[in-house]
Amino acid sequence: MNINKVSIALDCKNHIGESCFWDSKENCLIWTDIEGKTIWKLDESNQSFKFNLPDRAGFILPRKKDGFIIGFPKFIAISNQNFSSFEKICDVEVSIKKTRINDAKVDPYGGIVFGTYNEDPDKLNRKPIANLYRLAPDLSLTHLLSNITVSNGLAFSQKDNIMYFADTPTGRIQKFSYNQDFKKLIELESNMIFKDVGEPDGATLDIDDNYWSARVRGKCIICIDTKNGKIIEKIDLPTSTPTCVTFGNSDLSCLYVTSLRADPNNDSADGNLYKIKTGTQGLKQLLADF
């Protein structure tokens, strides 16, 4: 499926590039630099735009109405189109000092599923105190999973009610079935754990329900056949720390990859935005019904 070489889409030197998606309303890629406290946009003519935020944003997602849903460290807010105003709609884990909001995706029913992340600087001794939640369109909050360290890898099949999720340090990509209100979340059998390709970070599905996983500290992305749990493609990257993937451009055939800089003072390939022309297509971005 990888028919062209990897190229740099934008030399942006993000601290932690994350949460990328293709916005069909503005016809551009949008993502967050978490530690940089910024939102970035890149259009098809390769023009980039950068917006400052009042705090770190673990995720940004589009809505059916104007503006965006943003996950700040301890609350979720609705922003206007140019990120100059923010309306808080949900507090998150305010009593757990070491966690912040991390990965998130819009679900097929217009809500958002998001997880938290234990950002204790002592990485070797981080405890699984983070959680996974769903915020429904009526703004009710449902707790889905606990005993998590780093929430990542969220993706939704639009053919079946299957959700994918990864707690990064475990290395395992999990599968769950769910119903419309997410009151029933049932873990399904999954053998999607892979050695020597880094750890699972952000992810997306293509039109064939293959799961594309950014492998942080693995210098690659992998494409997994979700029917048999086998890797069907591995694409090496210039950066050792890819963080998130999404399909973009008007035909959704270009795979975009964000990355992070483990050493902010190191002027390397880490932290840039990459793109890969593929032989497949992504799914149209879902919109939050808030």
Task: Provide key terms for this protein.
single chain; 290 residues; mainly beta; Neuraminidase; 4-stranded antiparallel β-sheet; 0% helix; globular
Topology summary:
Blueprint: E1 7-10, E2 17-23, E3 28-33, E4 38-43, E5 48-52, E6 59-62, E7 68-71, E8 75-79, E9 86-91, E10 99-106, E11 112-118, E12 130-135, E13 141-148, E14 151-156, E15 162-167, E16 172-178, E17 185-193, E18 199-205, E19 211-216, E20 220-225, E21 230-236, E22 242-248, E23 254-259, E24 273-277
Antiparallel strand pairs: 1-24, 2-3, 3-4, 4-5, 6-7, 7-8, 8-9, 10-11, 11-12, 12-13, 14-15, 15-16, 16-17, 18-19, 19-20, 20-21, 22-23, 23-24
Describe this protein's structure.
The chain has 290 residues and is an all-beta fold. It has one domain (7-277): Neuraminidase. It contains no helices and 24 strands. The chain has a four-stranded antiparallel sheet with strand order 1-24-23-22, with no helix packed on it. A hairpin with a 5-residue loop joins strand 18 and strand 19. It is globular and about 45 Å long. The N and C termini lie far apart (36 Å).
Per CATH, the superfamily is: TolB, C-terminal domain
The CATH architecture name reads 6 Propeller
Which strand order spans the largest sheet, edge to edge or round the barrel?
Answer: 1-24-23-22
Q: How far is the first residue's CA from the last residue's CA?
A: 36 Å
Helix tally? Answer: 0
Low-confidence residue ranges: none
Average pLDDT score = 95
Shape: globular
Order of helices and strands: EEEEEEEEEEEEEEEEEEEEEEEE
CATH class: Mainly Beta
Using only C-alpha atoms, the radius of gyration works out to 17 Å
Strand content is over 45%
Question: How many separate structural domains?
Answer: 1
